[in-house]
Amino acid sequence: MASVALSGKVAVVTGSGGGIGRAVAIAMAEAGASVVINDVGASLHGEGASGSPANETKALIEATGGRAAINTDSVAEWDGAQKIVQCALDNFSRIDIVVNNAGILRDSIFHKMDPNDWRAVIDVHLHGTFNVSRAAAEHFRRQESGAYVHMTSGSGLAGMVGQANYSAAKLGITALSKVIALDMGRYNVRSNCIAPIAWSRMTSSIPEDSPEKKALVEKLKRMTPDKNAPLAVYLASDAARHVNAQIFGVRLHEIYLMGQSRMLRSVHRSEGWTPESIAEHAMPALQGSFMSVQSSSQLIPWDPI
Length: 305
What we know:
Blueprint: E1 10-14, H1 19-30, E2 34-38, H2 52-63, E3 68-71, H3 78-92, E4 97-100, H4 115-143, E5 146-151, H5 154-158, H6 164-184, E6 189-197, H7 211-222, H8 229-236, E7 247-251, E8 254-257, H9 275-287
Parallel strand pairs: 1-2, 1-4, 2-3, 4-5, 5-6, 6-7
Antiparallel strand pairs: 7-8
Helix pairs in contact: 1-2, 1-8, 3-4, 4-6
């Protein structure tokens, strides 16, 4: 069996004061990594700050003999990201793994979305992923090794009602991950994404205002954050040295590989196209391959086992 030990490695896990981030941080420590627990202590919507969530994660890691340090800087700030990576260097002398997990939600129907809510979510998710990844990149390049694990979402891959900001950021992360893989593969640096499904602060905001929503919440409560941690540990380990530029999903005991944008079908007209010929010939020929207008929650109709 391939070894997925992380002994001697140092991991930064953003947003690891609770939920999926905490589960990943604990699992990486159990696999032998020293962990920087980054968490600003903010609420789901990004307000307030307290060090207590990160302290709880640190106590859980140290209770089983693991090593951890706390950083409370914001991933949304370039200087904050530099300090997050520096925390790894100051405490453990190196950095090998970055897990971009920090996030907030500010949901709203698109035609009512406040520009400030758009910017706040983009800043934490997309800019935050860039900031921390970029802060680690020079170290990865010099040592010619490193692993990025970015948290995307079904909301980004397929869309979700009321989450224009979150969906845009999460899909942007997949494109960023792909380019990191292309640019840094020559330095033995890998970049992959996980689309996790778990009951956490992110999903606990789902309103239970219909029988369907209540049923969805009950399903989600079975999907505890720790179900996502084994894949994150694997992708960070040397056992995954051949895995790069991929997008995986986790749902309870399922792991699935997500498709990426590719041409589905083409039409050609030797004399070129007019709006009329497109309407008459091109669209009817292509329509059978159109993607359906469904949200992410509608794309997996079977119950988790």
